[in-house]
Amino acid sequence: MDIDAWVWWLIGAVGLGIPLVLTAMPEFGMFAVGAVAASAVAALGGGIVAQVLVFALVSVALIAVVRPIAARHRAGQTGQASGIDALKGRQAAVLERVSADGGRIKLAGEVWSARSYDADQVFEPGTQVDVIDIDGATAVVM
To answer: Fewer beta carbons under 10 A from the terminal one: N or C of the chain?
Structure first.
């Protein structure tokens, strides 16, 4: 039984797809696409040199183009703060006198316990303060 070259390339593409699924490494997927392209060349009657060149060129081109785009996409996602990190740097309104001993502020629509960053600072009700840190359930303001 003689198997055509294009079938071998498709088997190789499936073989490269398995580690893609198991390891979540997109490079394997790019090599699998290169193998599919080489399979198309083989089906159209291209020689082994043409098949290997198409496999290499498509795989390298995908890695050169897709990886930088994916890296930029990943880098853009990490810049979004959530939870208490999103509250740092925001402004709040003082509801009850805030000193180093404590007080209350309204931050993001909620009432928070607060204390001043500097022991000497005291903020009176109605004052706008900046949240510089969250310590447990207490906002540290200045």
So the answer is: N
What is the pTM for the complete model shown? Answer: 0.53
List phi, psi (to 5°) of 22.
-75, -35
| DSSP letter for each residue of 78-134 | HT---GGGGTTT-EEEEEEEEETTEEEEEETTEEEEEEESSTT--B-TT-EEEEEEE
CA 29 to chain CA centroid, nearest Å = 19
Tens-level pLDDT at each residue, the chain (142 residues): 678 999 999 999 999 999 988 987 888 999 999 999 999 999 999 999 999 999 999 999 999 999 888 888 877 665 567 788 888 989 999 999 999 999 999 998 999 999 999 989 999 999 999 999 999 899 999 9
- Give the separation between CA 84 and CA 88, rounded to whole angstroms: 7
Amino acid in position 108: A
Q: Locate tokens 């797809």: which residue?
A: 17
Q: What's at 121, amino acid-wise?
A: Q
